[in-house]
Amino acid sequence: MSEINPRYADGIDEQVALEHVTAEEYETILTELGRAPNRVELGIFSVMWSEHCSYKSSRVHLAKFPTTGERVVYGPGENAGVVDIDDGEVAVFKMESHNHPSFIEPYQGSATGVGGILRDVFTMGARPVALMNALRFGSPDHPKTRQLVSGVAAGIGGYGNCVGVPTVGGETNFHPGYNGNILVNAMAVGLAKREGIFTAAAREVGYPVLYVGAKTGRDGIHGATMASAEFGEGSEEKRPTVQVGDPFTEKKLIEACLELMTENAISSIQDMGAAGLTSSSVEMASSGGLGIELDLDHVPQRETGMTAYEMMLSESQERMLIILKPGAEPVAERIFRKWDLDVATIGRTTDTSRLVLKHKGEIVCDLPLDPIGEKAPKYRRPYTEAAKPAAVDPKSIADPADLGAALLTVMSSPDMASKRWIWSQYDRHVMADTVASSEDPADAAIVRIHGRDKALAITTDCTPRYCFADPREGGRQAVAEAWRNLTAVGADPIAITDCLNFGNPERPEIMAQFVGCVEGMAEACEALSFPVVSGNVSLYNETDGKAIPPTPAVGAVGLIPDVAVRAGYGGMAEDMVLLVVGETAGALGASIYLREIEGREEGAPPPVDLAAEKRNGDFVRAEIRAGRAKIVHDLSEAGIAGAVADMAMASGAGAKLAYSGELPLAAWLFGEDQARYLIAADETTAATIRENAIKAGVPVEVAGIAGGDAITVNGGHALDVTRLKRANEAWLPDFMAGGEVMAAE
Amino acid sequence: MKTAVIVFPGSNCDRDAAVALERVTGRPAAMIWHGDSALPEGLDLVMVPGGFSYGDYLRSGAVSARSPIMQDLVRRAGEGLPVLGVCNGFQVLTEAGLLDGALMRNAGLRFICEKAPLRVETADTRFTRAYGDRKDVTIPIAHHDGNFFADDETLDRLEGEGQVAFRYAANPNGSARDIAGITNAAGNVLGMMPHPERAVDPALGGTDGLGVFESLLGGRS
Amino acid sequence: MKARIHVYLKPGVLDPQGVAVATSLNHLGFDEVTAARQGKLIELDLDGADADAAQARVKEMCDKLLANPVIESYDIELSA
Amino acid sequence: MKARIHVYLKPGVLDPQGVAVATSLNHLGFDEVTAARQGKLIELDLDGADADAAQARVKEMCDKLLANPVIESYDIELSA
Lengths: 745, 221, 80, 80
Ligand SMILES: Nc1ncnc2c1ncn2[C@@H]1O[C@H](COP(=O)(O)OP(=O)(O)O)[C@@H](O)[C@H]1O
Ligand SMILES: [Mg+2]
Hints:
The complex is a heterotetramer, with one copy of chain A (745 residues), one copy of chain B (221 residues) and two copies of chain C (80 residues). Chain A has 745 residues and is α+β, with helices and mostly antiparallel strands. Chain A has 24 helices and 28 strands. Chain C has one domain (2-79): Mth169, Chain: A, CATH 3.30.1280.10. Bound molecules: adenosine-5'-diphosphate and magnesium ion.
């Protein structure tokens, strides 16, 4: 117990303290300060030591990720990762969650998620050029699901479309495990000149601190403070916790910041995200080893009577903090005024290593920065790994009477059905460089670098079923699939970002999922030379003790040197030969087939052989670069059958599949073995590819011939492609039409 | 050919418009800030680009239509200067009174980004002549408020005077009489919801929008 | 002074939002709803105390910006 | 019976539309406008004649569908 007396100050009592931090953390604060914190200071500790800002449960494990590589310019630690893409240019990207706000208010929650991730990217001096989104909803039967899908899609579109950054891809799953906690993960990718990158660390003492963007209101102030006495007067109505996004202001903020960045005016810059002014000022000062002093009277305010506490904890959107070079104030003011944005000098950097806040002539906070940042709590939470499920013997799964009917069922199931209803609400083409997006038959989105022949390939991936069954294997698989998707379009995979969504880390079985997934991902990143350059952790995704399935979403970026040399999976034509590259063992554990056809969610996920993954992928990429492989699809969910179905629907052509091996047909068709690709090519080219594979020691198999109007297996089981496509397109619109959904904004 | 693109805060197809214009004319377009009071002299075309000028707050295009540059644009359009408004630009031109009707919320209430099959309704305008006998083109749409409305009398007049430039082959948004684009009575102002500037580059899947720009150049596609 | 402005779609202008509201309410079991229309509510805070002058000015604001005469009509309520 | 419903953003919730309206009116020379807020106006036609019952039902409609309680509040006016 600490000796400090009094233990509480500024009207704080034990209860108020515990609404902000744990008892143990409060003791640490007392020890570090040598006195009791006042209310503003306690609020600052509370947000800075929150899981969201401090990564207190995850930090020790995130350290396991490989974060360096030939192309890595900035890894984790900055607002976004930065990788070299040749010619003095860099790609800047990051993924972030907005799960909880999106569940409470789907439109605004998802919209502000997009806004936040865009700011992380343009803060670094990059013009955002692409958005992605990874969404997980509850069961379609759950009464809230329809409204959530509608609101989230409209919110993501509403923000991205208005800001004018194309939303080029993403993924959407439905599972009862998300009934009480949906996941909304958004990724942004930007482009910059290598020497045009800006970072957050304050560098020099006595530089002015500039606030720009929207005014500060009482938006999203830390839930923990709601019950505190500080809000004595005023009704419930005065305290909205949901932030409303203003994409129009964001668009102006992007243009104004990028304009100022060309003026040699900025020393460093940081967006105000979670914990707003607090985290931005603390991070800027402490990462530069300096101090910072702010006068809150100068903060542009939207409402009257705001307290220092409220200003420091507000999460109002569309704001940035800039440390200017001295004398640059006039140019900054000119630019922000031109864009009709608020701009105010609110403080300066100091050499004290302290955060000092003034309000109405009084010092309302004087804290050493070290304890807030460096000395933030770091937990090694206990974890107990669950027993691994047994593999499912493919021979134990009986073939259904009609494989065509099974394929129809699988391809029109919620996870496999077309998500057009969602992505047709996203402007995928603004900026006029989108080569491939959601509507195009390609395993990754492709965005051309403006004015050049090269392009970025972008994907997001995660198979929560696998992660639930075996976190480590699932973690490896998520990274491997992202790498495979980039490879399948002909890109050189460069690096990943991630968004690690899990339940309550204080429960050892959940912590084990987290550790397992992270270690699996780290292994795959290492093996594939695919470093992690940025990311985000979202914990406590659970309701009534029921956690979400572990969902470590991976966002990956690769480079296509010449966009004319790439692959997609459309264009399959009569008589083309279908080649499966990689080994088919009929892995049906935790598969879509098992779930949709047998009604079972069980078994070990497909094992990930990282060496095979690399070898097979490098082979396929080389064949694409050589101009031979032009129609390529990675094999993942629903295996060969799923990939052939995709190709058939994209090409308007059928396929005659043939198999005479040992596996039951269902296992051969629907097994989700990893490290595989499907290639369609004319007979001569296919023969060459096959020979090359054999020479390279890459397993290769002829799976059939394209042609006709149906997909057939060994001459039977016909499934008409038109019918397949209709069913695949119909599920989501039919589902959404099945109940009342209001226009979401 | 000398062209200009008007930039409002919240325009986001301004660069796309400029790239398309430069691709077709071989000369960079002048970018004109909405707060300026006059357009440059000697222009052959002004493009009002797509986007969400002023966030589409209040009504799409309403606030932009009242910005300083628009007064000069209205005046110059009256003198015969060709003006092309695309998407948000079309909304701005109706709000500014340069074109008839109004663009309301899509009938389905959702934003729609799709490739839209269109019919070139009259090849007899200075924006469509390059299409010649070609009737069917596909140009992408991306909008929330593209539902064209005008009263019956106005619609009859637009049709009667050959002012309907484009119609949707499959009406995506509830537009009256499937109208996707109209001209003014004098024929020098075209507003259309589909984005021709997004269909000028074969690498991005389609060049059906080229005709609009080539028409202005006087060529045939 | 405060002004409250209602902006309505004119009769004859199809109101997709209103239709969606009515349909959704019916789906939810509110069968008594036979029609719905959606408009805008704009509230202004105004300097000055002369109600007649304010009425004229707000009318001008509506004509110039707040309503689109092609599709909308409006009414104005002033209060102190 | 008719119901007129005003849906407002709760105080303190950012209202970008309202801000844009006020700024734009100021730009157009209406300097007396010091603030603007934008909300929704929903009008319903209702079967039945019992005003008390209607009031309760319309309130239910607002809670269930017409207003988003996280950020919006509403009021209801009934007329014959
Ligand atoms: N799962 C992760 N993997 C790698 N880096 C991570 C991960 N989570 C967070 N980081 C890094 O930690 C830093 C802080 O993250 P975060 O607080 O989410 O950023 P911001 O303050 O911009 O919201 C960032 O540099 C981020 O890239
Ligand atoms: Mg940040």
